[in-house]
Write a structure and sequence with these properties.
Its EC number is 2.3.1.128. Keywords: Acyltransferase, Transferase. Pfam families: Acetyltransf_1. It is a single chain. This protein is an alpha+beta fold and about 190 residues long. The chain has a single domain, classed as Gcn5-related N-acetyltransferase (GNAT) (Aminopeptidase). About 35% of the residues lie in helices and about 30% in strands. A seven-stranded mixed beta sheet has the order 1-2-3-4-5-7-6, with helices on both faces. The longest helix is centred in the C-terminal third of the chain and has 23 residues. The relative contact order is 0.12.
Length: about 190
C-alpha cells in the first residue's frame, strides 16, 4: 500500500529508508544524515510502499520489514526531478516500483509539472525497462555520475505537457501554402500584363 511519507513517523521513515539504501546501493547509498536532509528539503514529495495493514498514522512503524519501497522527487515549479526510488530486494519484480513511479507521475501532474526528469545507472536494465515502459526517453549521458564507484548515468525525461513551439496545424499549413501559390500566380499574371 502506497502512503505519503510525511504522514508517517519521521524517525521510522529515516531509519527504514537508510536501511534500504544500504541494502540496495552499497557504497553509493545515502547516509542517514543525507536521508534526513533530503526529507527536510523544500519542495520534496516522498511516497512509501508499506505492507497492508500497517499504514495507520496513529501507530508508529516498528517492524523493519514493513517498508517495501520508497520514492521521492523535487518540484522546482516547472520540472520534477526524481531523487530516488528503491524497492527491497525481497519485494522486487512485484509491481512495487511501477506503483511508486505511477504515484510520482500522478503527483507531478497534480502539482503542474511540465515533465519528469531522472538519472539512472547505464547498466541498471530493470530500471531502464521500467522507465521506458512509462514513456521516459533518454536525453544524454553523465559520465562518472554515481560516486564513489564512478558509474555513468543516462538522463531521462517524461513530457507531461507537450511544449509546442512554432506549431502550425496541418490544415492551416495547407491553406497557407495554397494562399502563397495563389499569390504567386496572381503576381505572375500581373507581370504578364
Amino acid at each position: 500500500m502506497i502512503v505519503d511519507a510525511f504522514t508517517c513517523e519521521r524517525i521510522w521513515v529515516v531509519s527504514q529508508i537508510s536501511r534500504l539504501e544500504q541494502e540496495l546501493f552499497g557504497q553509493g547509498a545515502w547516509s542517514r544524515k543525507t536521508v534526513e536532509q533530503e526529507l527536510q528539503a523544500p519542495a520534496r514529495t516522498y511516497f512509501l510502499d508499506v505492507a497492508p495493514g500497517c499504514a495507520s498514522s496513529t501507530q508508529p512503524y516498528l517492524d523493519s520489514e514493513e517498508l517495501r519501497g520508497y520514492a521521492g522527487f523535487w518540484f522546482d515549479g516547472d520540472d520534477c526531478e526524481i531523487m530516488t526510488i528503491g524497492v527491497a530486494r525481497n519485494h522486487q519484480h512485484l509491481g512495487i516500483g511501477s506503483g511508486l513511479l505511477r504515484r510520482m507521475i500522478e503527483s507531478s501532474c497534480a502539482q503542474g509539472a511540465r515533465r519528469v526528469l531522472l538519472e539512472v545507472q547505464v547498466d541498471n536494465t530493470s530500471a531502464l525497462g521500467l522507465y521506458e515502459h512509462f514513456g521516459f526517453r533518454k536525453l544524454g549521458l553523465r559520465r562518472r555520475y554515481y560516486q564513489p564507484q564512478g558509474a555513468d548515468a543516462f538522463t531521462m525525461a517524461l513530457d507531461l505537457k507537450p511544449i509546442r513551439v512554432g506549431f502550425i496545424p496541418h490544415d492551416m499549413s495547407v491553406s497557407r501554402r495554397e494562399q502563397q501559390n495563389d499569390n504567386a500566380e496572381s503576381q505572375a499574371t500581373e507581370e504578364d500584363k
